Amino acid sequence: xxxxRAGQASSARRPAAPGGxxxxxxxxxxxxxxxxxxxxxxxxxxxxxxxxxxxxxxxxERVFGxxxxxxxxxxxxxxxxxxxxxxxxxxxxxxxxxGTHMALGAARxxxxxxxxxxxxxxxxxxxxxxxxxxxxxxxxxxxEPASIRCSAGCEQLIVGLDRNSLQAHTRSLLxxxxxxxxxxxxxxxxxxxxxxxxxxxxxxxxxxxDSHEGLLRHPLVVADMERALMTGLLIAQPxxxxxxxxxxxxxxxxxxxxxxxxxxxxxxxxEYTVASLAQLVGVSARTLEKxxxxxxxxxxxxxxxxxxxxxxxxxxxxxxGGDKKVGEVATRWGIYHLxxxxxxxxxxxxxxxxxxxRRNRSHALxxxxxx
Length: 371
Prior knowledge:
Structural class: alpha+beta
CATH superfamily of the largest domain: Jelly Rolls
Number of domains: 2
Strand content: 15-25%
CATH topology of the largest domain: Jelly Rolls
Distance between the termini: 42 Å
CATH class of the largest domain: Mainly Beta
């Protein structure tokens, strides 16, 4: 289901190319209906329009997390943010109206795909540098600081993929836990091949979000389209698990036990029991118990608790002082006995949940001096 804050949409036109000329449609990612209608993507979902950088800070934080935004000296910002939150995917359109530099902190809750629709960006991470254009976009991990410089007139589509959901989806495709962090190559060429197909599917999702009476009003459609977008990114963009994903593509259909594991990985917050899982995958409870122990070394209920603890810890590591409380995070993942939760968390991670939050509260922004 789409969630958004309604706002008064602006009458912003398609951005001009350098030198004041309108950019030719073949040199931008703007679909023809936006070009011809003088609209911007996601125009129904205005979050903020302001010339005051400080006033826009909290709105931009919903997309980028903790950050610092600097406007080029002598320039006047015209900050416009439109943002549509689905379930696990956030679609945002951003124009800053001036040359800018944004420093992102190292603890975010989303993977970000940054797509310049006009103009250019320069993205720095610890080890890489990317000149972003309408056909060369950046895929940023949630756990690394980044520095982003945008040209004057740069307008961009930003896709935020919830870190927990994308990692859970990867686990479900692999039928196995992730033994190292999921990382993508920084540069994605959306001008050709599978990456172009992924970009076209993204723009189809944006068009559906723009529709007043569309399929995205149904949560089942949202879930399926989000899974397709996540799978497409995992296949189209080289990442930590590309080789394993290619291997899995040749595997036979999932066994009932693999299906049950995938169900838990995708939605550990649900009130699964051994009996309900067995019914969903079409085997007896006794068979599921036996096969679970053989495959993962745990009964289904213990595996469910293990996954819930993982999700809670992943979320606690990106919490800051203004975020929700530990108990709220735990209950969101289906954990309601908070005393037992604290004990199990300490047994597993050798620290209390509150200690995890305190330890990760301060994350330095990247040092961009000399760039």
